[in-house]
């Protein structure tokens, strides 16, 4: 078993503070920008950044659905960390300025992968699939912020 990591990033229009606030708004903006891979979205506690507890199902492939219950923390300025209570998955969103009126958003998910041949396929294909899912979320975020 080894650590598996998936990362994607995008430049979006908007000040870093505004982009971060939109990502941290689990009661509003976040639900709007999720892709079709997410279902059963529900804020169970909080709703704005640190202290939020949010649930969703993530359909990574046609056969693989992950039931996620995420605790949200803000360890540093511009960073949201979502730790899944149901697995080893941790997703970190980092927002930094990227020039005049723009921000860089980097999303990194890590988890402990399976062993054996299944683990080989997971390490080979899962990062690309998850990066595609989060790229769609970032595209939706960019479109939402440009409204």
Primary descriptors:
147 residues, 7 strands, globular, 7-stranded antiparallel β-sheet
What's a quick, concise take on this entry?
The chain is an alpha+beta fold and 147 residues long. It is built from three helices and seven strands.
Beta content comes to 35-45%
Order of helices and strands: EHHEEEEEEH
Rounded average pLDDT: 92
Strands ordered across the widest β-sheet: 1-7-6-5-4-3-2
Detailed description of the structure:
The chain is of the alpha+beta class and 147 residues long. Helices cover 30% and strands 41% of the residues. It is built from three helices and seven strands, in the order E-H-H-E-E-E-E-E-E-H. The chain has helices at 16-24, 29-33, 116-145; strands spanning 3-13, 38-45, 53-59, 65-73, 79-84, 90-97, 102-112. Strands 1-7-6-5-4-3-2 form a seven-stranded antiparallel beta sheet. A hairpin with a 5-residue loop joins strand 4 (65-73) and strand 5. It is globular, with a radius of gyration of 15 Å. It starts with a strand and ends with a helix. The mean pLDDT is 92.
């Amino acid at each position: 078993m080894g650590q598996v990591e998936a990362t994607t990033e995008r430049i979006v229009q908007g000040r870093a503070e505004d982009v971060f606030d939109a990502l941290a708004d689990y009661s509003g903006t976040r639900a709007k920008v999720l892709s079709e891979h997410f279902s059963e979205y529900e804020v169970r506690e909080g709703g704005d950044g640190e202290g939020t507890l949010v649930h969703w199902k993530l359909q990574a492939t046609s056969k693989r659905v992950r039931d996620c219950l995420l605790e949200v923390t803000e360890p540093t300025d511009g960073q949201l960390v979502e730790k899944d209570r149901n697995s080893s998955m941790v997703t970190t969103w980092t927002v930094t300025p990227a020039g005049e009126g723009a921000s860089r958003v980097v999303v990194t998910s890590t988890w402990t992968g399976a062993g054996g041949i299944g683990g080989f396929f997971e390490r080979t294909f899962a990062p690309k699939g998850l990066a595609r899912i989060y790229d769609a979320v970032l595209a939706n975020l960019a479109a939402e912020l440009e409204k």
